[in-house]
Amino acid sequence: MENHVFKNNWKSDTPKIVRGKGIYLYDKDGKGYIDGSSGSISSSLAHGRVDMAETLRKQAETLAYVTRLTSITPLYEEVSSVLADNTHMDRFFLTSGGSEAVEVATKIALSYQRYREKPNKTKILSRWLSYHGCTSHTMSIGGNVARRSDYISQLTEDGHIAPPLCYHCWFGKERNSCNCECAEALETEILMHGPENIAGFIFETIGGSTTGAATPPLEYYKKIREICDKYDVLVIADEIMCGYGRTGKMLALEHYGIKPDIVVLAKSMGGGYFPVGAVGTTEEVAAPIKAHGSFMGGYTWGSNPIACATVIQTTKIIHSENLLENVTNMGALLKSGLEDLMKKHPTLGDVRGIGLMVCTEFVKDKNTRESFDPEVNFTGKFINNAREEGLLLNAGSKYNKGIRGDGALIGPCFEVSKEEIEIIVDRVDKALSNTEKEVL
Ligand SMILES: Cc1ncc(COP(=O)(O)O)c(C=O)c1O
Fold it and tell me: Were 266 and a residue from 4, 94, 277, 408 both cysteine, which residue would form a disulfide, CB within 3.0 to 4.6 Å?
């Protein structure tokens, strides 16, 4: 059959997957692969769940679509209550994915400022190395040099600060003995632009593919919240990857005891069964927009009934099967198993992350934390070797200033068992040994 697919990657041969069951994906020849990164840390639930399939089927039969421009469904109201109960936010706007949700979140921030008579507060500050999506606006507030470079002419610049990536600290500090200079950098940035011009600060609570599960120290978000409050700047948490259970809490910011003004969700809330995203706001953020009477934003398929039903069912499963606890326990096991590999592998420089969102970073020199030359293609070789071992993983994306840096993001589905974690660690071990044989 002639191949008409417009691919993301024409250089690498990826397997043709036809079926999934549990943590496994199967290609057309029946070979099984562990879905080690849950798609793109998106399939929070195991593959092939009959209860999820039944939810989608039933909803499609009952009501597949209605536009929110002419009507509202009880399901949209129900899913909003479910999301409110689970995240402690007050109002929810549904989209069909993450980038759309970030677009909506920043529009809400601007509308909020405008309708409370702060029309100059229009800039959205963010962090270098972050990823907030693939539209031009979300790429603009994103900060990954490699991902942005082809489209730089289309991007705008509101202001970026250093990321809280302790392994490659931009301030030359060490975790636990620093003053969170990377958080203090936000105050400087706000002052340089003028607080009267800043609408919000957006960040990935736990870094995604571009900082490799960077998990800031506990004081980091406390400082961020204080600085934002001081200058009347909205705290916008992009929890598209780390939210809805992935770290063992419904919101990753719960680990820090901080509440955002706006939160953005996607991936895990749909279980991996249906495209969906959401923006949650506090009542305080919604109030001026509500008083104004309308909000210009949104997309055709947002809040469609099948997405709503999928989120409700995913949430039920997360709680009825105690999956937050399993994520916490299996995440700890995964992390300690990978940390053990550090003793044996000269290139495994760092293992970081929380819950089932763990990054292995590979370096040329553990003492200096020097990264490999990109020409070496260490990540590409490792991903290929992992695939040979029957483990599909997401490549990391140049954590070291966006120019170099190798690694992979590991995060199986929430139901993963102890035995399966052991198999994943074993396959990482073998794939890394084979990569080191090729490179060192
Ligand atoms: C933190 C974060 N924000 C935004 C996005 C964009 O979401 P989507 O790919 O659903 O548009 C992603 C996707 O990986 C993400 O990880």
Answer: 277
Q: Mind listing the domains of the chain with CATH numbers?
A: 17-48+322-439 (3.90.1150.10), 51-320 (3.40.640.10)
Q: Which residues of 139-175 are buried (b: 16+ CB within 10 A; e: fewer)?
A: bbbbbbbebbeeeeeeeeebbbbbbbbbbbbbeeeee
243 lines ligand 1 (CB under 6 A): no
**Distance of CA 439 from the midpoint of ligand 1 (Å):** 32
Cβ–Cβ < 8 Å for 413, 38:
yes
Ligand 1 atom 16, closest CA: 241
Cβ(132)–Cβ(238) below 8 Å: yes
CA 204 to ligand 1: nearest atom: 1
Gap between the Cα atoms of 57 and 79, Å rounded:
18
| Cβ–Cβ under 8 Å, residues 403 and 147 | no
The verdict on the CB of residue 99 being under 6 Å from ligand 1 is yes
Contacts of 92 (CB under 8 A, 6+ apart): 79, 80, 83, 84, 278, 279, 280, 281
Hey, whose CA ends up nearest to atom 5 of ligand 1?
133
Q: Is the separation of the CB atoms in 404 and 372 below 8 Å? A: yes
User: What DSSP string runs through 335-371?
Assistant: HHHHHHHHHH-TTEEEEEESSS-EEEEE-SBTTTTBP
440 CA → ligand 1 middle, Å: 34
Is 270 a pocket residue for ligand 1 (Cβ < 6 Å)?
Answer: no
- Close Cβ partners of 139 (under 8 Å, ≥ 6 residues apart): 132, 133, 147, 148, 151, 154, 155
Whole-prediction pTM: 0.98
User: How does pLDDT run across 123-182, given as a tens digit for each residue?
Assistant: 999 999 999 999 999 999 999 988 898 999 999 999 999 999 999 999 999 998 999 999
* SS3 label, residue 264: strand
